[in-house]
Amino acid sequence: MTALPPASEAGAPRWLLPRSAHAAHPALVLAGFVIAGFGISLSQGGAAGVIQDQVSDLGTTVDMIGWTIVAYALGVVIGAPLIMVGLAAWNRRHLLLTMSAIFVVTSALTALAPTVETLFAARLLAGLPHGALLGSASYVGVLALGVEKRGKVIATIMYGLTAAAVVGIPAMQWISVQAGWRVAFWVVAAVGLTGLALMWAFVPSVPGTQGAGFRTELAALRGRILWTAILTVTVGFAGLGAVQSYMVPLLEDTNGFAPRTVTVVLALFGLGMTAGAYVGGRLTDRSVLLTSRVGIIGVAATLLVLGLVGELGWPVIVALVLLGLFIQTFSQAAQAHLMDATHTSPSLGAAISHAALNAATVVGTGLGAVVIGAGWGYVAPAWIALALSLVAIVLVFVGPGYRR
User: How far is 26 from 24, CA to CA, in rounded Å?
Assistant: First the structure.
């Protein structure tokens, strides 16, 4: 049963709350969130698909563009906890619309960036609303369908992210090849604007958390179990950033695949991640601990294979698809464990989950940029990722909170 407020705040002008948002329309509310998630995933994941064209257009190197991917993830790490905690008392409709508007503007700034330095700044700003937007969408979505359907809400919002992985990110790479990377990011801005329009039309007024503040929320950030969970997500998921961010030059420059073939490989990689999300979700419901261990061992084994066959052509594709499957299986379980560890503060828990995943991107993509800049080639990030995954294996077997 929906818990969304049926009417607007007294005296709110029509442009702030149109008539269509006065009564609950759960399906249309969720549609706006799915499209917003699709746009966010395009913005973050699609950046790896256009990296070759950015290098050519901006007259820079792959490792320098890698740092712009790090900048986006760093924006999420900074913005997710600060915005969700600092603006916890904000009306959720206002917060969602503000974050969506910032996302549209920063996507446009990305498309307009004339240099790699301005691109870095635009990507940093673009990452700031990421966690607050998705975290607030999950909260309002649960209110829209009722708390008894919270699993369905989260899965529905994830459809946008999965659709981006399977269809959207390969499409961005194709658009970049055909019309340029700037056009691809104008598409991202258009998707974000569509999500913003749906949210403006159908998301009702939802009060924030009254009396919430930094001191109350940060009190939840205590204990070895929580920090072990954060560290496990960060080092375990960092392998995805290290490999995915440089997947296109690995396929094109190291293995000689044509851009049209790379488009298909990106779609296959997305399908692998989708399968991992499905399998990981079902296994996590049975055992968070076992799924974490199976997932991260699979990640390590696949990275080892990728490092060994990284220059052999078609075997690389098989290794990448399997990596997508295992990394997403591990991610589902590790995030569930992290959310359990922050159960006393839901808003902070949502923010920390996004922040930890993007801290992983900062670590993995950043280290990948370092080894590529040192001239070690595009296979080298796989070995960095393998080392990080071995740390995660130790944590999920003997770390506090994972031993029992």
Answer: 6
- C-beta separation of 72 from 44 below 8 A: yes
Question: What value does the mean pLDDT take over residues 382-399?
Answer: 90
Contact 176, 182 (CB under 8 A): no
Q: What is the mean pLDDT of the chain?
A: 82
Amino acid of residue 314: W
CA dist 397 and 294 (Å) reads 11
Fold designation for 21-211? Growth Hormone; Chain: A; (1.20.1250)
What's the DSSP call for residue 59?
T
The predicted structure's pLDDT at residue 332? 76
- Hey, what CATH class is 219-404 in? mainly alpha
Is residue 307 within 8 Å of 400, Cβ to Cβ? no
Task: Pull the structure tokens for residue 122.
Answer: 């635009």
Tell me phi and psi for residue 377, to 5 degrees. 95, 175
Q: How is the chain split into domains, by residue range?
A: 21-211, 219-404
User: pLDDT tens digits, residue range 202-239?
Assistant: 888 777 766 555 566 666 566 677 788 888 888 888 88
C-alpha 76/C-alpha 107 separation (Å) is 14
* DSSP string for 62-117: HHHHHHHHHHHHHHHHHHHHHHHHHTTTS-HHHHHHHHHHHHHHHHHHHHH--SHH
Residue located via tokens 């560290």: 231
Check: CB of residue 192 under 8 Å from CB of residue 38: no
**Residue pLDDT, tens place only, 240-276:** 888 888 888 899 888 989 888 988 888 898 888 888 8
User: What's the token pair of residue 343?
Assistant: 């159960």
| Of 351, 334, 358, the residue nearest 131 (C-alpha) | 351
